[in-house]
Amino acid sequence: MLNRVILIGRLTRDPEVRYTSSNIPVANFTLAVDRSRKNAQGERETDFIDIVLWQKLAELAKQYLTKGRLIAVDGRLQVRTWQTKEGDNRKTYEVVAESFNFLDKGDRQVASARAEGETPPLVEDALRLAGRGEGSDEDDDLPFWRVYQ
Q1: Number of domains in the chain
Q2: Is residue 13 a part of any domain in this protein?
Q3: I want to staple 58 with a disulfide (CB 3.0 to 4.6 A). Which of 9, 53, 83, 97 is the partner?
């Protein structure tokens, strides 16, 4: 089975960092991701996707990510359920980030960030599967491609 999500979008707010009772940092923010197709009115619709980062990645997000930054997030989809004080069951979908890469011209001190022990983002693999691997003439059409080479 495979649970892999790769998103490119802009932060809608600065990351909010808090600590668990075991003093483990966790960060949350929302990523605005434009859909690739236009709607009936000829406009692109935007999805707002909740992102969660843990441990070292959360600390890096706090230090380097700000509202408006264009980033690529590589992670997995997670379904989280809970019960309200009133006893109602709730469910939310969020992406747990395993890495992120800057795609804009902001602070270049850190080109990318990964959770410790994780492999690099799989953007290149996704492009290869889509028929845009190395040597493809379509590479120039991808504004973020050079970041990963």
Answers
A1: 1
A2: yes
A3: 53
> Which of 25, 13, 28 lies closest to 96 in space, CA to CA?
28
Nearest partner of 98 among 55, 149, 145, 146, judged by Cα:
55
pTM: 0.71
Q: Which two tokens stand for residue 102?
A: 């800057």
pLDDT in tens, 14-42: 999 999 999 999 999 999 999 988 889 99
How many angstroms separate the CA atoms of 39 and 134, rounded?
Answer: 32
Identify whether 149 is part of a domain.
no
47-93: pLDDT as tens digits: 999 999 999 999 999 999 999 999 999 999 999 999 999 999 999 99
* Domain extent at residue 127: 5-144
Classify 120 in phi/psi space as left (phi over 0), alpha (psi -120 to 50) or beta.
beta
Q: Which amino acid is present at 63?
A: Q
Quick check: is 114 in a domain? yes
At residue 81, the 3 state secondary structure works out as: strand
- Element spanning 56, H or E: helix 55-64
